[in-house]
Amino acid sequence: MKRTIIKNASAIVSCDSKDRVYKDCDILIQGPEIMEIGKGLADPDAEIISAQGKFIYPGLVNTHHHFFQTFARNLMAVDYPNITVIQWLDEIYEIFKMIDSDAIYYSSLAAMTDLIKHGCTTAFDHQYCFPNTTDKKLVDRQMEAASLLGIRFHAGRGANTLPREKGSTIPSSMLETTDEFLSDCERLIDLYHNPAPFSMSQIVIAPCQPVNCYKETFIESAALGRDKSVLLHTHLGEGENELMVQRWGKRTLDWCEEIGFIGEDVWYAHGWELLPQEYKTMADSKTGLSHCPAPATLGGFPIIDIPGMRRAGMKLSLGCDGSATNDSSNLLDSLRMAYLMQCFHSKERGGSPSPYQMLKMASIEGAKMMGRNDFGSLAEGKAADLFMVDVSRLEMAGTTHDPANLLARAGVTGEVYLTMINGKVVFKEGELTGIDEKHLFNAAEKACNSSIRDRCAVYGKNIL
Question: What pTM does this model have?
Fold first, then answer.
């Protein structure tokens, strides 16, 4: 099995249980696994990677995204600062319903590439758009893209089942039945879900959101997930509570608790509508929350109270969210944004998380939320998922005395020097390993533009 030694790292920020920061040390890797961290490590048969002048961090873990939205970036006609999330969904689905297999593949490649170049090694994607104009094998195309790039991928198979005439925002061409949805979940689990250590692919059952699905969709999703021992995910607390109260006489979290879509095997995205008394429900049930700062900021929505949630004992992680409400897949940028927004509210909330605490939220805590104990920190026995930042550049002078707090505090949001996933270098010094980026860019532009420009004219100025 291949052995690699990363030599002479100026600092290794482990994010381990002891919060160790190693100075001037090496990392010995065998296959996908970290074997040892220490000084002067040697192996005559190992490949040597120099980390002189570099800080090394655990790979970032993105716990909420919608890769398919990458083809709908920078469309100001469907921006949403002055409308509600529900109103925005009503407009944007007129674009989303046009996706096809190639758009899924190339938009996933674009999003994954952005993540990799900015230090992300594990990505969860919530793919909930399955138009009846294309086949069901859209998650399969995402798996194809992930395999090409070498990223660790957890695929959320989502769905929308409630018709517009019953109160949803979903065009009829995008509706699935609960049976269709769950049948495809089973197919994907059988094909791709690997629960073994260092697994590169897993499946999550992820009905899109309670306001756009029948109750039975959520009930049966939870039953299937527990039968198959896979995790569950959905949107919650993202502007839908008023509709849920009108429809069911209760808030979304109460609704999820009543039907059993809550617990240690569940995490939600967003949660900016959660009330302080609901933090305890989340904590007591061990349900996780993926914080996505970019869409909340873009839409002018409340910024979650991380100190209050921490005091209640909630599990938290970090997500980019879909590119239609972020316009990038740069988790370092989301890390910086999340930190600054917490600082903005620090006086009223009794403090804010440190930059290092936010880094742990974006790494080890995200891994644990997705049921993974085999990565997220740099330690013996963990996967060699990591990235390097070159701190020997002039603009970094004056920042290097505190490696643990560097990223969010100093705004290190550009491309990293190197990204390694499962012991393999997938990106280094501006180049994806073994990938013809120019060729893929041209193919992606063609696929994405045909999904928008060539087929949106019918919707007129409301779309473009």
Answer: 0.95
